[in-house]
Amino acid sequence: MSEQYDVIVIGAGNGGLVAAASAAKLGQKTLLLERHNLPGGAATSFVRGRFEFEPSLHELASYGPAEHPGGVRELFDWLNLDVKLDPVPDAYRIINTGKDGFDVSMPTGIPAFIQKLNAEAPGNQDAINQFFALATESTTVFQALFSDPTKLTPELLAEKYPNFVKYGHKPYQTVLNEIGLTPKAQEILMAYWCYIGIPGDEFEFAYFAAMVVSYVALAAYVPQHRSHEISSALVKSLQDNGGTAWFNTEVTQLIVQDHAVVGVKTAHQTLYAKQVIADLHPNTVYSHLLQPDQVPQSELKKANARKLGTSGFLVYLGMNQSAEQLGIHDYSTFIAHTWDSRKQYQNMQQLNDNGFMIMNCLNIAEPNCSPKGTSILYATQLFDDPSWNHVTPEDYPRLKDQLTEHIIATYEAATGIKIRHAIEEIEVATPATFARYLRGPQGEIYGYYGQPWDQMMARALSLKSEDEPIPNLHFCGGTGFLMDGYSSAYQSGYMAAKLTTSKLNQEATVK
After folding, report:
1. For residue range 397-432, what is the model confidence (pLDDT) as tens digits?
2. How far apart are CA 227 and CA 215, in angstroms?
3. Angle in degrees, CA 305, 138, 479, rounded to 5
4. Three-state SS for 504?
5. Beta-carbon neighbour count of residue 352 at 10 Å?
6. d(CA 114, CA 104)
């Protein structure tokens, strides 16, 4: 019989890396298996010419300064990660290119943000103050959820956080209307919806509002050496605590005995474990790693009821001029011809006239990320099913060029900043790229789309009861209870490690 592990983690994405490092830190004999030769999944980097690009991370939320750490910094400190992250100096620039257009740059820090919002949308002071009071309460609740969602019962929520209970599950747009914010103020406060991909009229207020507070109050951060720096540090933490990581090792099957998962098979061997954590899409596990009769009908129904999240079209630009020379002063610039998030979402389901993009300039947060006199830009457009379903191999190269040209032209027209002449290196990633690299069923980068019955609050409150769809099998990552995003994936990996460790400790006590 092969060597027995306490915990085997499948997949070295953000969630899997933290799950493995945390399980080892908690004293479990841990093995991490990854099919690629590098850790991180999308949390890595790649080089073109003299530029090192970040594949997907815009910025890391919930990190915060040392004197006021967020949950992610506390987690990284607990795992003793040697990483250097720098704060993004501003919140975002938001441009509406439609008939009621505006161009506003928002600062970090809640007082400064409120002051700027009041100046840009006069007559909203009371409503804005109420928004941040409600959002801050939501943040407090989510900090408790991140600590241990199994202890925050509905009864306790109702007693301690009545406003959270009243407003938390309502759509973000509904609450903004109820507290009396004017349309322009609402549009400015809608910018971050694209980071989860759920329109404001469907996105739970509590989660969206807490995300705004996290970015504004704690600022966002970026790693000095791309997110590969974090992924490598997590592997080192795992190894420092006695764990093992195997790369170029793809799991081909879960071993099930007496209706419980007891190990995994790779191309070359069988490995046994008391607990298995999968940083994989549940659809992939159920369709490729298990036999049909091994998957509970309830899990099949849930997987079929869920909708896959949005995917992305990213353009990576290495510029032969500095940000200062180009006239770029903002880290994140959100551009759209409407800031009605429902219309934006609907436009994401078509290839033409998407009308939305984000441009990030990494040098604004990390001046030394590229050689002197150069800069790095990332442009992102989001697409949703069925936009790319009928793209043929013959049309694919032409479509990439067409969308790239449109993104560059849109940015130049909206900002007045000319960038085309300074492009030295260019690379493009499409939904097909992400499907091939990350093995999401449709190239989605946001896990499951959070339908009203399937958003963060519902998932968090049912975590304990739904944690093991099959005995000894746990999930983490972008499809988890905290939904998608780097910070969420890190926290879900930590929670998966805590739950598996708790079960192992209970079993040891019984024996």
Report:
1. 999 999 999 999 999 999 999 999 999 999 999 999
2. 18
3. 30
4. helix
5. 11
6. 13
Q: Give the ranges where 366-446 is alpha helix by DSSP (H).
A: 396-415, 431-438
Single-letter amino acid code for the residue at 304: N
**For residues 114 and 195, what is the distance between their CA atoms, to the nearest angstrom?**
21
CA–CA gap between residue 476 and residue 148 (Å, rounded) = 15
Distance set, CA 470 to CA 141, 278, 496 (Å): 29, 12, 14
Which CB contacts under 8 angstroms, 24+ apart, belong to 345-348? 345/197, 345/198, 345/199, 345/384, 348/310, 348/382, 348/383, 348/384, 348/387
Cβ(130)–Cβ(179) below 8 Å: yes
Share of residues in the chain with pLDDT > 70 (%): 98
Helices (H), 149-296: 154-160, 162-167, 172-178, 183-188, 205-218, 226-240, 282-284
Please tell me the least confidently modeled range out of 131-140, 191-200, 280-289, 437-446. 437-446
Residues 6+ apart with CB under 8 A from 194: 334, 344, 356, 358, 382
Bridge-based pairing state of the strands 375-383 and 356-361: antiparallel
DSSP state of 43: S
- Per-residue model confidence (pLDDT) at position 462: 80
| Alpha-carbon separation of residue 291 from 227, 260, 320, 343, 441 (angstroms) | 35, 13, 53, 41, 18
CA angle 177, 178, 181 (to 5 degrees): 50
pLDDT, tens digit, for every residue of 255-280?
999 999 999 999 989 999 999 999 99
Lowest mean pLDDT segment, chosen from 46-50, 207-211, 371-375, 478-482: 478-482
Helix (H) or strand (E) holding 9: strand 4-10
- Average pLDDT of the chain, as a whole number: 93
**CA-closest candidate to residue 138, choices 59, 219, 212:** 212
**Which positions ≥6 away from 302 have C-beta within 8 Å?**
none
Residues 84 and 21: their CA atoms lie apart, in Å, by 19
Q: What pLDDT, on a 0 to 100 scale, did the predictor assign at position 148? A: 67
Q: Which amino acid is at 3?
A: E
